[in-house]
Write a structure and sequence with these properties.
Elements lengths: L2 E5 L5 E6 L13 E12 L8 H4 L2 E9 L1 H28 L6 H16 L19 H9 L2 H5 L2 E4 L6 H9 L3 E5 L8 E5 L14 H7 L1 E3 L9 E4 L3 E2 L6 E2 L5 H12 L8 E4 L23 E3 L4 E3 L17 H6 L1 H14 L19
Helix pairs in contact: 2-3, 4-6
Length: 364
Amino acid sequence: MDVHFLKLSSSCSIATKSRCSLRVPLDFSSFFHFKCQPFPVYLVKQRRGNKARNHSTIVRGINLSFDEAAYESERKRLDAIARETMSQKLEIESRDLEDPKAWKWVIRKRVWDQMEARNIAQFPKPVHHRIPNFVGANIAADRLSELAAFKEAICVKVNPDTPQKQVRFLTLKGGKKLLTPQPRLRTGFFSVLEESKLSSETIKEACTSAGVAKYGKPIGLDEKIKVDLIVIGSVAVDPSTGARLGKGEGFAELEYGMLRYMGAIDDSTPIITSVHDEQLVDDIPVEKLLVHDVPVDIICTPTRVILTNTRIPKPQGIYWEKLSPEKLGQIRILRELKSRIEQETGTKLPCGPSEKLPPTARRK
């Protein structure tokens, strides 16, 4: 049977018009079902106006339908494994007084515990080992949307976590380009979404993890894109210095470093976080922060907007000497970037020390 293939993205190639076997190399694409149909063409994604034929996926004799239930099931399974891993890392690293990350776990655990105890935490719960969703997250997002930095931005990078869902929605509703990473970078890199390519019925869905996989356009390291604003999730943040702690996996730092490599951002690109007031702390020791830790310029809470006037230097890229072999092995796009830089420079990049990973993290 002749199968006419079509390129879905720069990193997910089912393309060329030839006789060959159907293959889907990019992980999230396995949630698209391929079925032979008796009719000549099938529209996969509906688009509005005259751009429908340019932006839709039309395949002769093949029906591509996104299996959202399978995607969500797999996402939740992997999230549960990641949270179990983080829980075990907390126990290991917080007990080791010589571990440079031990103090971070103490602050994270205190904030998570307080949010649960004071009923500040919102779904998904428990908030431990997550960027915690909180009461008033939408109000904080609305405050963020009133900032000049947001209003003037054309392209906004927003983390994929639940408390920033409203920020993603307001970005799209404001006619801006939304750049958001695939969860934990495990299925690819970044996806771009635009309101003009969504319908009023699908725009809210596009702000979810499954919606990003379903409607977003995956991009690669060669994409020419300028990001005007970064919105980042936090577990704790110090309003006096702009020092920030995430949930402990380091993905925000990796995403930032890769955007620096792409030339999409620089030191002047503002970084904003939205948190509950109870996530504001005053005991993050700036002198103990690592070179790749990302500070924030502005904090939005349900009650106020805080300009940190941070003096903490922003990371300049990926610090390979800090990146463990285990983390590198988990993220395909990082391995691709490392290989590319080594080929371009003719120099082998350094690798960081091995992590003290618990058994869960070593599962295949």
